[in-house]
Write a structure and sequence with these properties.
Blueprint lengths: L9 H20 L7 H8 L3 H8 L2 H13 L11 H17 L1 H12 L7 H22 L7 H18 L6 H10 L1
Length: about 180
């Protein structure tokens, strides 16, 4: 499990930023198959023991980088109605996660520890926060709310399953069919 920083900024934040930047740059230059902790450490200007101490192993580091890239930078679009808010969010989510980069990030997150406070749990929280934003907006407009766990079970989980196992593209038609069930 990735250790949370005790304070913002400072040396720890600089190390994390340098290591994340090294992973992102090296992933483009040498390919993911050739990534190693010593190579990342050299690029980041830290020792391999620094990476092992903070992240434990390469899969945890890659998961931490993936979580950072999957972290939302803004709230879901506010289209003025719960149905269109959910549709816009789900279609964007499916498109982003089914891209080659999105799928790789999902796989990195899942390859790390399954601790609920770990990478997978943090990604789940991001999705729940977006759904909660949509639900709160709907309630404020006087619309009937939806159950967030049901939305995860009925809409998000099948999309992620099909992205990871590649047996069906989560295209717009499929996503809209899932939303209709919700």
């Amino acid at each position: 499990m990735v250790k949370e920083m005790l304070r913002q900024g400072g040396r720890s934040a600089r190390i994390q930023a340098a290591v994340h930047a090294a992973v992102n740059a090296l992933s483009k230059e040498v390919g993911r198959e050739e990534l190693t902790v010593p190579l990342i450490a050299e690029r980041a200007g830290v020792t391999p023991s620094t990476i092992y101490r903070r992240w434990g192993d390469l899969s945890e580091l890659l998961a931490d980088v993936a979580v950072q890239r999957l972290r939302p930078i803004s709230d879901p679009d506010d289209t003025g109605a719960i149905t269109s808010d959910l549709e816009a969010f789900v279609l964007q989510y499916a498109e982003e996660m089914s891209s080659p980069v999105g799928r790789t990030l999902l796989l990195d997150v899942l390859a790390a520890s399954s601790d609920v406070s770990g990478p997978a749990g943090r990604c789940c929280q991001y999705t729940k926060q977006h759904l909660e934003t949509i639900r709160i907006r709907a309630t404020a407009r006087g619309e009937d709310a939806f159950d967030i766990n049901e939305a995860i079970d009925v809409v998000i989980a099948p999309i992620v399953y099909h992205i990871l196992f590649g047996d069906r593209a989560p295209d717009e038609e499929y996503c809209r069919a899932l939303l209709a069930r919700l």
